[in-house]
Write a structure and sequence with these properties.
Elements (H helix, E strand, L loop, with lengths): L5 H20 L8 E3 L12 E9 L2 E10 L2 H9 L2 H17 L2 E3 L5 E3 L4 E3 L4 E4 L5 H7 L14
Antiparallel strand pairs: 1-2, 2-3, 4-5, 6-7
């Protein structure tokens, strides 16, 4: 798919930013999953929770503190969105954008290769013009880019 469609370019840019942020997060101590340490840390907050990453280093388990939250439900949310999950999410979103490749019809209108359907009655495509509904739904998770780039409508 070409990136000349503003929504496609917007999605690809946001996915790249998410991927770069997640890759930076894996540099903490390898690529282990993040977990909430079950022991409250009163030295940090009243019943504060650490989000930790556990990896194997030879025979020993290595635990690295990633973040701290005074609220357990917030800590669980942070741990649930560890870099490995975000990278898998980026791969899935990239595959969706790639799958919804565009093509041009005889009038130079652009259509989604997955969502467009041909109407024998009208002898033309009836739906699936770009940006298709799938790409609009995918882009809806981002209101604006970190640089203030607005979500294209």
């Amino acid at each position: 798919m070409t990136d000349d469609d503003p929504l496609v370019a917007f999605c690809r840019d946001r996915i790249s930013e998410d991927r770069a942020t997640a890759k930076a997060g894996t540099r903490i101590n390898g690529s282990g999953a993040w977990h909430v340490d079950p022991r409250p840390r009163r030295d940090l907050f009243d019943d504060g929770r650490m989000i930790v990453q556990r990896d194997k280093a030879g025979e020993a388990d290595v635990t690295t503190m990633v973040a701290v939250s005074s609220l357990e439900h917030v800590a669980r949310h942070i741990a649930r969105h560890d870099p490995a999950r975000v990278l898998a999410d980026c791969d899935a979103k990239t595959a969706i954008v790639d799958l919804h490749e565009s093509f041009e019809d005889h009038r130079d209108d652009r259509w989604c290769r997955v969502c467009a359907w041909w109407s024998d009655m009208h002898q033309e495509y009836d739906s699936g013009q770009l940006p298709c509904k799938t790409l609009r739904l995918l882009a809806a998770v981002w209101r604006v880019g970190p640089d203030g780039t607005p979500h294209p409508e």
